[in-house]
Amino acid sequence: MRVSTFRRIVMKDTSDLLEQFLGFLEVSGTRYCVIGGQAVNAYVEPLVSLDLDVVVAVKDANELALQLRKSFKVVRFPHSLNVSLSGSDLRIQVQTDERYVPFIERARRKNVLGRRMFVADIADVLQGKIWAALDPEGQGSKRQKDLADIARILETYPAYRDSIPPDLLSRLL
User: 57, 33, 46, 28: which is closest to 116 by C-alpha?
Assistant: First the structure.
């Protein structure tokens, strides 16, 4: 079975949200990169996830939300836009936290969900996971997933162990 077929079945993506969203970015000329768990999956043995986290190079998140609303359901949160369509269990989260924008410059094309996409560099993916794991406002289960993603990265890229804050590293042992 092809990865794209698996994706459509697991995500119940009859509306083809992923293709429509990527098409929107391409047509609008919006630079982006994948971050989060799907970016981790691009570098290590993948795990199934219904989330796709991206950061985009835009100056005005409100304008982006207005443009996205023409084709998608968009819910605004303090540091993200959640993009969805009926007919898909895929959850796209557009990160609006400015710390992630420099990741776009170092991104390169990799396979994600059976599609070539721009993915943040592994060092940037790890940094994003560190920020998420240390976020006191994040859900406890989400922080645990972020810790697991950090552990997955370190298993494949042990040289990055020194970049993990000691208090976070102690939670991985």
Answer: 33
Give backbone dihedrals phi and psi of 102, rounded to 5 degrees, phi first.
Answer: -60, -20
Q: What's this model's pTM, rounded to 2 decimal places?
A: 0.91
3-state secondary structure 82-144: EEECCCCCCEEEEECCHHHCCHHHHCEEEEECCEEEEECCHHHHHHHHHHHHHCCCCCHHHHH
The β-bridge partners of 77 are 80
What residue ranges define each of the domains in the chain, with the CATH number in brackets? 3-172 (3.30.460.40)
pLDDT tens digits along 87-109: 999 999 999 999 999 999 999 99
Please state, for a pLDDT cut of 90, what percent of the chain lies above it. 72
